[in-house]
Amino acid sequence: MQGSDQTQGRSPAQGIVFDIQKFSVNDGPGVRTAVFLKGCQMKCVWCHNPESLSIKKQLSFSVQKCIGCRACEKACPKGVHRFDHERSHQVNFDDCDACGLCVDACMQDALKIYGKEMMVDEVFAEVIKDKVYFDKSGGGLTLSGGEALKQFDFSLALAKKCKENGLHVCIETNGASKPEHYRAIAPYVDLFLFDYKATGEKTHKSLTGLSKRVVDENLQLLAQIDAQVILRCPIIPGYNLSDAHLEAIARLGESMANIQKVELLPYHNFGKGKAVEIGREYDVDAELPTDEDVQGWLAKVRSYGEINVTLS
Questions:
Q1: What is the DSSP letter of 270?
Q2: Is the per-residue pLDDT at 13 higher than 90?
Q3: How much is the pLDDT for 9?
Q4: Which of 81, 195, 239, 242 is most exposed by smallest CB count within 10 Å?
């Protein structure tokens, strides 16, 4: 496996961040800064951020940018990079320890490392730069991933820091973290963006690798403590798309007073290219939905009752 185990011996004030996106408008209300943390309990077959699944730092290689100069091969002490007689660049991701020497040597930006060790204060310093935009738009910080609560101590410390400084805080979660983590962080979170991925235990486990039971229990827990929720529902044709699933989404949205609204997230295949670049397989064979398809899903959900459902 790539990289060292970053969960061992790390300060609660330090996390592994793989991206910070400024001026995000799809990760909660207003203009937001989204901080993406590595690590996830689920292994969704359609994962849009496959670079987030491992909590370890990872090498990424873009074959389109490579010119075959072989500088990476010379720089790497592990023999991770290999070129055949046609100058085809092969990468042994399993042997990579994400030291970054090959990245420094590459002049074409064909290589990069996903994952950077950052302190809470470092991340907060980036987030607070945008406070004027947050104040004008009702935005703030969104913690995402992967699964932000996989790095619970770091997420808790950052959420506290932001709330102490008057920022609105969202956390996007797959619902699979420990119940005590949701209870502990809820006082510092204004809104949970809660993923609802599949209906039925067998389907959920086959598509995500985890039981649906823990997700349902944590959704009920957030309702019990009156934590505000937006239910986010990725819709993947051929995988989780069914009338039963759309009806279950509607019933959940109707039944829980703490759910502000439901958002449908139509399938896109952005994760495919990223998976290839980190040496992972991407086996999803789903059609990209048309606008007509998506409008049909919205109409179907609305047909089951009075529910605030939109697209994200």
A1: H
A2: no
A3: 53
A4: 242
Give the mean pLDDT of 51-59: 96
Instruction: Give the span between the Cα atoms of 272 and 290, in whole angstroms.
Output: 19
Residue 234, helix vs strand vs coil: strand
Residue 5 has a pLDDT of 37
Give CA–CA dist 269/48, Å, rounded.
7
Residue 312: per-residue pLDDT = 87
Q: What is the DSSP letter of 94?
A: G
What was the pLDDT predicted at 4? 36
User: Would you call the peptide bond into 209 cis, given omega within 30 degrees of 0 as the criterion?
Assistant: no
Q: Are 231 and 259 contacting, i.e. CB atoms less than 8 angstroms apart?
A: yes
Tokens of 161: 């820091």
Contact 80, 96 (CB under 8 A): yes
Residue 101, pLDDT > 50, answer yes
Q: How many CB atoms lie within 10 A of CB 41?
A: 17
30 dihedral zone (left: phi>0; alpha: psi -120 to 50; beta): left
Q: What is the pLDDT of residue 2?
A: 42
Q: 195 forms bridges with which residues in the sheet?
A: 232
H or E element in which residue 263 lies = strand 259-266
Gap between the Cα atoms of 85 and 203, Å rounded: 46
3-state secondary structure of 185: helix
Specify the residue for token string 């320890």: 97
Nearest to 264 by CA among 307, 201, 221, 218: 307
Alpha-carbon distance of 76 to 101, in angstroms, equals 6
Structure tokens at 82: 């290999």
The secondary structure of 120-164 as a DSSP string is HHHHHHHHHTTHHHHHHHT-EEEEESS-GGGGHHHHHHHHHHHHH
In the prediction, which pLDDT does 110 show? 98
Which amino acid does the sequence have at 47?
Answer: C
